[in-house]
Protein backbone atom coordinates (compact mmCIF):
# COMPACT_ATOMS: atom_id res chain seq x y z
CA UNK A 1 0.00 0.00 0.00
CA UNK A 2 1.05 3.59 -0.63
CA UNK A 3 1.99 5.94 2.20
CA UNK A 4 -0.78 7.97 3.87
CA UNK A 5 -1.11 11.66 3.11
CA UNK A 6 -0.28 14.36 5.61
CA UNK A 7 -3.66 15.83 6.57
CA UNK A 8 -2.81 17.52 9.87
CA UNK A 9 -4.26 20.93 9.06
CA UNK A 10 -7.36 19.50 7.40
CA UNK A 11 -8.13 17.43 10.48
CA UNK A 12 -7.50 20.37 12.81
CA UNK A 13 -9.93 22.59 10.90
CA UNK A 14 -12.47 19.76 10.92
CA UNK A 15 -12.31 19.41 14.70
CA UNK A 16 -12.88 23.14 15.06
CA UNK A 17 -15.73 23.06 12.53
CA UNK A 18 -17.53 20.38 14.54
CA UNK A 19 -18.07 23.04 17.24
CA UNK A 20 -19.28 25.62 14.69
CA UNK A 21 -21.41 23.84 12.08
CA UNK A 22 -23.62 20.72 12.43
CA UNK A 23 -21.52 17.87 11.06
CA UNK A 24 -18.69 20.36 10.33
CA UNK A 25 -19.45 20.30 6.59
CA UNK A 26 -22.74 19.61 4.84
CA UNK A 27 -24.13 16.48 3.26
CA UNK A 28 -22.10 14.72 0.61
CA UNK A 29 -18.92 16.56 1.60
CA UNK A 30 -18.72 14.86 4.99
CA UNK A 31 -15.73 12.54 5.55
CA UNK A 32 -17.81 9.33 5.69
CA UNK A 33 -18.79 9.85 2.05
CA UNK A 34 -15.12 9.46 1.09
CA UNK A 35 -12.70 7.30 3.12
CA UNK A 36 -12.48 8.67 6.64
CA UNK A 37 -8.93 9.46 7.70
CA UNK A 38 -7.57 9.20 4.15
CA UNK A 39 -9.18 12.05 2.23
CA UNK A 40 -8.64 15.77 2.80
CA UNK A 41 -11.62 17.58 4.28
CA UNK A 42 -10.74 21.13 3.21
CA UNK A 43 -9.34 22.52 -0.02
CA UNK A 44 -7.27 25.69 -0.19
CA UNK A 45 -7.24 26.48 -3.92
CA UNK A 46 -7.85 25.20 -7.42
CA UNK A 47 -6.55 25.95 -10.90
CA UNK A 48 -7.24 24.27 -14.23
CA UNK A 49 -7.81 20.57 -13.64
CA UNK A 50 -6.19 20.42 -10.21
CA UNK A 51 -7.05 21.21 -6.58
CA UNK A 52 -4.81 21.77 -3.55
CA UNK A 53 -5.82 20.99 0.03
CA UNK A 54 -5.00 23.03 3.14
CA UNK A 55 -1.97 20.80 3.83
CA UNK A 56 -0.47 21.55 0.43
CA UNK A 57 -1.29 18.25 -1.29
CA UNK A 58 -2.18 18.75 -4.96
CA UNK A 59 -4.60 16.40 -6.75
CA UNK A 60 -5.91 15.82 -10.24
CA UNK A 61 -9.51 16.84 -9.71
CA UNK A 62 -11.72 14.17 -11.25
CA UNK A 63 -14.79 15.20 -9.25
CA UNK A 64 -14.92 18.76 -10.60
CA UNK A 65 -16.96 20.15 -7.67
CA UNK A 66 -19.52 17.39 -8.35
CA UNK A 67 -19.87 18.52 -11.94
CA UNK A 68 -19.91 22.32 -12.42
CA UNK A 69 -16.30 22.60 -13.60
CA UNK A 70 -16.63 21.84 -17.30
CA UNK A 71 -13.65 23.90 -18.55
CA UNK A 72 -11.40 24.33 -15.52
CA UNK A 73 -11.01 26.10 -12.20
CA UNK A 74 -10.34 29.84 -12.19
CA UNK A 75 -10.88 30.37 -15.90
CA UNK A 76 -9.59 33.91 -16.43
CA UNK A 77 -11.79 34.72 -19.41
CA UNK A 78 -14.94 33.86 -17.47
CA UNK A 79 -13.79 35.48 -14.23
CA UNK A 80 -12.75 38.66 -16.04
CA UNK A 81 -16.19 38.97 -17.63
CA UNK A 82 -17.75 38.63 -14.18
CA UNK A 83 -15.33 41.15 -12.63
CA UNK A 84 -16.10 43.62 -15.41
CA UNK A 85 -19.84 43.30 -14.69
CA UNK A 86 -19.24 43.70 -10.97
CA UNK A 87 -17.04 46.78 -11.29
CA UNK A 88 -18.77 48.61 -14.10
CA UNK A 89 -22.47 47.73 -13.88
CA UNK A 90 -23.27 45.96 -10.59
CA UNK A 91 -25.22 42.75 -10.21
CA UNK A 92 -27.91 42.85 -7.47
CA UNK A 93 -30.69 45.33 -8.17
CA UNK A 94 -34.41 45.80 -7.60
CA UNK A 95 -35.05 45.25 -11.32
CA UNK A 96 -33.63 42.77 -13.81
CA UNK A 97 -30.66 43.59 -16.06
CA UNK A 98 -30.94 42.85 -19.77
CA UNK A 99 -28.24 40.16 -19.71
CA UNK A 100 -31.10 37.82 -18.74
CA UNK A 101 -32.64 38.24 -22.20
CA UNK A 102 -29.33 37.59 -23.91
CA UNK A 103 -28.82 34.33 -22.05
CA UNK A 104 -32.42 33.20 -22.62
CA UNK A 105 -32.02 33.81 -26.37
CA UNK A 106 -28.82 31.77 -26.37
CA UNK A 107 -30.54 28.87 -24.63
CA UNK A 108 -33.36 29.05 -27.18
CA UNK A 109 -30.79 28.67 -29.94
CA UNK A 110 -29.03 25.59 -28.55
CA UNK A 111 -31.49 23.57 -26.39
CA UNK A 112 -34.21 21.72 -28.35
CA UNK A 113 -36.86 22.03 -25.61
CA UNK A 114 -36.25 25.72 -24.87
CA UNK A 115 -38.99 28.06 -26.03
CA UNK A 116 -38.81 30.06 -22.80
CA UNK A 117 -36.48 30.05 -19.79
CA UNK A 118 -36.41 31.14 -16.15
CA UNK A 119 -33.27 31.38 -14.06
CA UNK A 120 -32.76 30.17 -10.52
CA UNK A 121 -29.67 29.23 -8.51
CA UNK A 122 -29.39 25.50 -7.73
CA UNK A 123 -30.38 22.16 -9.19
CA UNK A 124 -32.93 21.67 -6.41
CA UNK A 125 -34.40 25.10 -7.19
CA UNK A 126 -34.78 24.10 -10.83
CA UNK A 127 -36.32 20.65 -10.35
CA UNK A 128 -38.77 21.96 -7.76
CA UNK A 129 -39.72 24.86 -10.03
CA UNK A 130 -40.32 22.43 -12.90
CA UNK A 131 -42.58 20.26 -10.73
CA UNK A 132 -44.56 23.32 -9.61
CA UNK A 133 -44.92 24.44 -13.22
CA UNK A 134 -46.11 20.98 -14.30
CA UNK A 135 -48.65 20.84 -11.48
CA UNK A 136 -49.84 24.35 -12.26
CA UNK A 137 -50.20 23.59 -15.95
CA UNK A 138 -52.01 20.25 -15.58
CA UNK A 139 -53.91 20.94 -12.34
CA UNK A 140 -52.76 17.47 -11.26
CA UNK A 141 -50.72 16.44 -8.24
CA UNK A 142 -48.88 13.13 -8.64
CA UNK A 143 -45.35 12.78 -9.98
CA UNK A 144 -43.32 9.86 -11.33
CA UNK A 145 -39.60 10.25 -10.70
CA UNK A 146 -36.39 8.45 -11.70
CA UNK A 147 -33.03 9.68 -10.45
CA UNK A 148 -31.63 12.14 -7.95
CA UNK A 149 -33.45 15.47 -8.15
CA UNK A 150 -32.15 17.39 -5.14
CA UNK A 151 -32.77 18.00 -1.45
CA UNK A 152 -36.27 19.53 -1.39
CA UNK A 153 -39.13 17.86 0.47
CA UNK A 154 -40.77 16.16 -2.52
CA UNK A 155 -37.63 14.31 -3.64
CA UNK A 156 -35.02 14.08 -0.87
CA UNK A 157 -33.95 10.49 -0.13
CA UNK A 158 -33.26 11.10 3.57
CA UNK A 159 -36.71 11.71 5.00
CA UNK A 160 -35.76 13.15 8.41
CA UNK A 161 -37.74 16.32 9.07
CA UNK A 162 -40.05 15.76 6.07
CA UNK A 163 -43.73 14.92 6.76
CA UNK A 164 -44.97 11.98 4.72
CA UNK A 165 -47.79 14.04 3.25
CA UNK A 166 -45.21 16.13 1.40
CA UNK A 167 -44.01 13.17 -0.69
CA UNK A 168 -46.95 10.77 -0.65
CA UNK A 169 -47.83 11.71 -4.26
CA UNK A 170 -44.34 10.88 -5.57
CA UNK A 171 -43.80 7.47 -7.17
CA UNK A 172 -40.39 6.11 -8.15
CA UNK A 173 -39.48 3.91 -11.10
CA UNK A 174 -36.11 2.56 -12.23
CA UNK A 175 -34.00 3.79 -15.11
CA UNK A 176 -34.54 1.85 -18.36
CA UNK A 177 -37.65 0.19 -16.87
CA UNK A 178 -40.32 1.44 -19.24
CA UNK A 179 -42.70 -1.33 -18.16
CA UNK A 180 -42.44 -0.17 -14.55
CA UNK A 181 -43.27 3.40 -15.55
CA UNK A 182 -46.18 2.18 -17.66
CA UNK A 183 -47.62 0.20 -14.76
CA UNK A 184 -47.46 3.27 -12.53
CA UNK A 185 -49.20 5.33 -15.18
CA UNK A 186 -51.94 2.71 -15.56
CA UNK A 187 -52.59 3.06 -11.83
CA UNK A 188 -52.09 6.80 -11.35
CA UNK A 189 -51.91 8.30 -14.84
CA UNK A 190 -55.06 10.40 -14.74
CA UNK A 191 -53.68 12.21 -11.67
CA UNK A 192 -50.03 12.48 -12.81
CA UNK A 193 -48.75 15.99 -13.47
CA UNK A 194 -45.19 15.05 -14.46
CA UNK A 195 -42.68 12.35 -15.21
CA UNK A 196 -39.22 13.58 -14.25
CA UNK A 197 -36.08 11.65 -15.15
CA UNK A 198 -32.35 12.10 -15.58
CA UNK A 199 -31.96 11.23 -19.30
CA UNK A 200 -28.57 9.69 -18.52
CA UNK A 201 -28.95 7.31 -15.59
CA UNK A 202 -26.58 7.97 -12.67
CA UNK A 203 -27.97 6.40 -9.47
CA UNK A 204 -25.86 6.84 -6.34
CA UNK A 205 -23.05 4.27 -6.02
CA UNK A 206 -24.24 2.38 -9.13
CA UNK A 207 -23.03 2.27 -12.71
CA UNK A 208 -23.88 5.13 -15.05
CA UNK A 209 -26.40 3.96 -17.67
CA UNK A 210 -27.33 5.11 -21.15
CA UNK A 211 -30.95 4.86 -22.27
CA UNK A 212 -31.97 1.69 -24.05
CA UNK A 213 -33.50 2.16 -27.51
CA UNK A 214 -37.02 3.50 -27.16
CA UNK A 215 -36.87 4.19 -23.41
CA UNK A 216 -36.92 7.99 -23.44
CA UNK A 217 -39.32 8.15 -26.40
CA UNK A 218 -41.56 5.65 -24.59
CA UNK A 219 -41.69 7.92 -21.55
CA UNK A 220 -42.68 10.87 -23.73
CA UNK A 221 -45.43 8.82 -25.34
CA UNK A 222 -46.69 7.79 -21.89
CA UNK A 223 -46.68 11.37 -20.66
CA UNK A 224 -48.63 12.60 -23.68
CA UNK A 225 -51.10 9.71 -23.50
CA UNK A 226 -52.09 10.71 -19.96
CA UNK A 227 -51.71 14.48 -20.31
CA UNK A 228 -48.60 14.70 -18.13
CA UNK A 229 -45.47 16.82 -18.57
CA UNK A 230 -42.20 15.04 -19.35
CA UNK A 231 -39.28 16.72 -17.57
CA UNK A 232 -35.63 15.95 -18.25
CA UNK A 233 -33.38 16.66 -15.28
CA UNK A 234 -30.23 17.69 -17.15
CA UNK A 235 -28.48 19.24 -14.17
CA UNK A 236 -25.51 16.89 -14.72
CA UNK A 237 -25.84 15.98 -18.40
CA UNK A 238 -26.50 19.48 -19.70
CA UNK A 239 -23.55 21.36 -21.23
CA UNK A 240 -21.49 18.19 -20.86
CA UNK A 241 -23.01 15.33 -22.85
CA UNK A 242 -23.93 17.78 -25.61
CA UNK A 243 -24.26 21.56 -25.84
CA UNK A 244 -27.98 20.98 -26.32
CA UNK A 245 -28.12 18.43 -23.52
CA UNK A 246 -28.69 14.69 -23.48
CA UNK A 247 -32.02 15.41 -25.18
CA UNK A 248 -30.11 16.48 -28.29
CA UNK A 249 -27.59 13.65 -27.96
CA UNK A 250 -30.34 11.02 -27.70
CA UNK A 251 -32.89 12.67 -29.99
CA UNK A 252 -35.86 13.00 -27.62
CA UNK A 253 -37.23 16.45 -26.76
CA UNK A 254 -39.10 16.70 -23.44
CA UNK A 255 -41.75 19.27 -22.56
CA UNK A 256 -39.61 20.86 -19.82
CA UNK A 257 -35.92 20.57 -18.92
CA UNK A 258 -33.71 21.76 -16.11
CA UNK A 259 -30.03 22.63 -16.48
CA UNK A 260 -27.31 23.68 -14.04
CA UNK A 261 -23.80 22.77 -12.92
CA UNK A 262 -21.68 23.14 -16.10
CA UNK A 263 -23.93 25.94 -17.41
CA UNK A 264 -21.79 28.60 -15.71
CA UNK A 265 -18.53 26.70 -14.98
CA UNK A 266 -18.94 26.88 -11.22
CA UNK A 267 -21.00 30.01 -10.73
CA UNK A 268 -24.33 29.27 -8.98
CA UNK A 269 -26.92 29.19 -11.74
CA UNK A 270 -29.60 26.83 -12.98
CA UNK A 271 -32.48 27.20 -15.38
CA UNK A 272 -35.87 25.72 -16.23
CA UNK A 273 -36.64 25.74 -19.95
CA UNK A 274 -39.57 24.42 -21.93
CA UNK A 275 -42.56 24.86 -24.15
CA UNK A 276 -44.06 28.34 -24.01
CA UNK A 277 -47.57 27.04 -23.40
CA UNK A 278 -46.40 25.27 -20.23
CA UNK A 279 -43.91 27.87 -19.04
CA UNK A 280 -46.55 30.61 -19.33
CA UNK A 281 -48.13 29.51 -16.03
CA UNK A 282 -45.24 31.35 -14.35
CA UNK A 283 -46.58 34.65 -15.69
CA UNK A 284 -49.44 34.70 -13.16
CA UNK A 285 -50.80 31.35 -12.03
CA UNK A 286 -47.61 29.91 -10.50
CA UNK A 287 -45.42 32.02 -8.21
CA UNK A 288 -41.63 32.04 -8.43
CA UNK A 289 -39.42 34.69 -6.86
CA UNK A 290 -36.19 35.25 -4.97
CA UNK A 291 -34.10 38.30 -4.13
CA UNK A 292 -31.09 36.71 -5.80
CA UNK A 293 -32.56 34.88 -8.83
CA UNK A 294 -32.03 37.90 -11.19
CA UNK A 295 -28.43 38.56 -10.08
CA UNK A 296 -26.37 39.09 -13.19
CA UNK A 297 -22.88 37.79 -12.34
CA UNK A 298 -23.91 34.17 -12.89
CA UNK A 299 -25.74 35.08 -16.12
CA UNK A 300 -22.61 36.78 -17.43
CA UNK A 301 -20.53 33.74 -16.45
CA UNK A 302 -22.94 31.44 -18.29
CA UNK A 303 -22.84 33.51 -21.48
CA UNK A 304 -19.06 33.53 -21.45
CA UNK A 305 -18.91 29.80 -20.65
CA UNK A 306 -21.20 28.96 -23.57
CA UNK A 307 -19.19 31.23 -25.84
CA UNK A 308 -16.01 29.32 -24.97
CA UNK A 309 -17.70 25.93 -25.25
CA UNK A 310 -18.80 26.78 -28.79
CA UNK A 311 -15.71 28.66 -29.92
CA UNK A 312 -13.15 26.09 -28.76
CA UNK A 313 -15.21 22.92 -29.31
CA UNK A 314 -14.77 22.13 -25.62
CA UNK A 315 -17.31 19.30 -25.50
CA UNK A 316 -15.83 17.64 -28.58
CA UNK A 317 -12.40 17.73 -26.96
CA UNK A 318 -13.76 16.33 -23.68
CA UNK A 319 -15.54 13.54 -25.52
CA UNK A 320 -12.39 12.60 -27.42
CA UNK A 321 -10.32 12.56 -24.22
CA UNK A 322 -13.06 10.70 -22.40
CA UNK A 323 -13.36 8.01 -25.04
CA UNK A 324 -9.61 7.38 -25.00
CA UNK A 325 -9.58 7.38 -21.20
CA UNK A 326 -12.49 4.91 -21.12
CA UNK A 327 -10.76 2.49 -23.49
CA UNK A 328 -7.60 2.47 -21.39
CA UNK A 329 -9.44 2.04 -18.09
CA UNK A 330 -11.63 -0.75 -19.45
CA UNK A 331 -8.50 -2.62 -20.57
CA UNK A 332 -6.91 -2.16 -17.15
CA UNK A 333 -10.03 -3.48 -15.41
CA UNK A 334 -10.27 -6.42 -17.78
CA UNK A 335 -6.69 -7.44 -16.95
CA UNK A 336 -6.99 -6.82 -13.21
CA UNK A 337 -8.61 -10.07 -12.15
CA UNK A 338 -10.94 -8.10 -9.86
CA UNK A 339 -14.70 -8.12 -10.43
CA UNK A 340 -15.32 -4.45 -11.10
CA UNK A 341 -17.07 -2.34 -13.73
CA UNK A 342 -16.28 0.86 -15.59
CA UNK A 343 -19.23 3.00 -16.66
CA UNK A 344 -20.01 6.58 -17.59
CA UNK A 345 -17.56 7.00 -20.42
CA UNK A 346 -16.80 9.39 -21.99
CA UNK A 347 -18.44 12.02 -19.76
CA UNK A 348 -18.91 10.67 -16.22
CA UNK A 349 -16.32 7.95 -15.47
CA UNK A 350 -17.06 5.62 -12.57
CA UNK A 351 -15.46 2.43 -11.27
CA UNK A 352 -17.71 0.22 -9.15
CA UNK A 353 -17.03 -3.11 -7.48
CA UNK A 354 -19.58 -5.82 -8.15
CA UNK A 355 -21.32 -7.55 -5.28
CA UNK A 356 -20.00 -11.01 -4.43
CA UNK A 357 -21.07 -13.73 -2.01
CA UNK A 358 -18.11 -13.05 0.30
CA UNK A 359 -18.77 -9.30 0.33
CA UNK A 360 -15.23 -8.56 -0.84
CA UNK A 361 -16.57 -5.59 -2.76
CA UNK A 362 -17.13 -3.79 0.54
CA UNK A 363 -13.38 -4.02 1.21
CA UNK A 364 -12.28 -3.39 -2.34
CA UNK A 365 -14.01 -0.03 -2.64
CA UNK A 366 -12.40 1.83 0.30
CA UNK A 367 -9.03 0.17 -0.32
CA UNK A 368 -9.07 1.15 -4.00
CA UNK A 369 -10.06 4.76 -3.40
CA UNK A 370 -7.54 5.02 -0.57
CA UNK A 371 -4.80 4.10 -3.02
CA UNK A 372 -6.03 6.68 -5.52
CA UNK A 373 -6.19 9.55 -3.05
CA UNK A 374 -2.76 8.71 -1.62
CA UNK A 375 -1.45 9.03 -5.16
CA UNK A 376 -3.16 12.38 -5.69
CA UNK A 377 -6.26 11.34 -7.69
CA UNK A 378 -9.37 13.01 -6.29
CA UNK A 379 -12.46 10.89 -6.89
CA UNK A 380 -15.46 9.99 -4.74
CA UNK A 381 -16.06 6.30 -3.92
CA UNK A 382 -19.86 6.50 -4.24
CA UNK A 383 -20.25 9.05 -7.02
CA UNK A 384 -19.12 9.09 -10.64
CA UNK A 385 -16.38 11.47 -11.68
CA UNK A 386 -16.14 13.98 -14.51
CA UNK A 387 -13.65 14.99 -17.17
CA UNK A 388 -12.89 18.68 -17.59
CA UNK A 389 -11.30 20.40 -20.57
CA UNK A 390 -8.20 21.30 -18.54
CA UNK A 391 -7.44 17.66 -17.79
CA UNK A 392 -4.47 17.06 -20.05
CA UNK A 393 -3.74 13.78 -21.80
CA UNK A 394 -0.80 13.40 -19.41
CA UNK A 395 -3.14 13.91 -16.43
CA UNK A 396 -5.53 11.27 -17.67
CA UNK A 397 -2.74 8.81 -18.49
CA UNK A 398 -1.45 9.27 -14.94
CA UNK A 399 -4.93 8.51 -13.60
CA UNK A 400 -5.04 5.33 -15.69
CA UNK A 401 -1.64 4.25 -14.36
CA UNK A 402 -2.75 4.82 -10.77
CA UNK A 403 -5.99 2.91 -11.32
CA UNK A 404 -3.88 -0.02 -12.54
CA UNK A 405 -1.52 0.27 -9.57
CA UNK A 406 -4.41 0.54 -7.10
CA UNK A 407 -6.11 -2.57 -8.41
CA UNK A 408 -2.86 -4.51 -8.02
CA UNK A 409 -2.36 -3.18 -4.50
CA UNK A 410 -5.80 -4.16 -3.19
CA UNK A 411 -5.82 -7.83 -4.14
CA UNK A 412 -6.59 -9.74 -0.95
Low-confidence stretches: none
Arithmetic mean pLDDT:
97
User: How would you sum up the major sheet?
Assistant: 7 strands, mixed
Shape: globular
| First-last Cα distance | 12 Å
CATH fold topology of the largest domain = Aspartate Aminotransferase, domain 2
DSSP strand (E) fraction?
Answer: 5-15%
Structural class: alpha/beta
- Helical run tally: 12
Biggest sheet, strands in spatial order?
A: 4-10-9-8-7-5-6
Q: How many whole angstroms does the radius of gyration measure?
A: 22 Å
How many domains would you count in the coordinates? 2
Q: Helical percent range? A: 25-40%
Classified by CATH, the class of the largest domain is Alpha Beta
Give the SSE order as H and E letters.
Answer: HEEEHHEHEEHEHEHEEHHHEEHEH
Name of the CATH superfamily of the largest domain: Type I PLP-dependent aspartate aminotransferase-like (Major domain)
Amino acid sequence: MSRPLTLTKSNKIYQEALTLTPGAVLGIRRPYNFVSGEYPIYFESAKGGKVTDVDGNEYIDMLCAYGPIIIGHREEEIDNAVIDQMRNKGFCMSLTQDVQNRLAKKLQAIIPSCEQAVFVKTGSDATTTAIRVARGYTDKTKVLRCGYHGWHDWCVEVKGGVPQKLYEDIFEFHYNDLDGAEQLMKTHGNDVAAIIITPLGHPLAHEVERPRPGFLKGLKDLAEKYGAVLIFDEIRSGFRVNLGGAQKEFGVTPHLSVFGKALANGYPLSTVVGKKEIMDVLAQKVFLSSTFFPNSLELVAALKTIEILERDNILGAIKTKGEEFAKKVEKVLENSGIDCTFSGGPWMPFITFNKDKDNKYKKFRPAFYTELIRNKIFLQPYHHGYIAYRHSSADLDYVVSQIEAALKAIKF
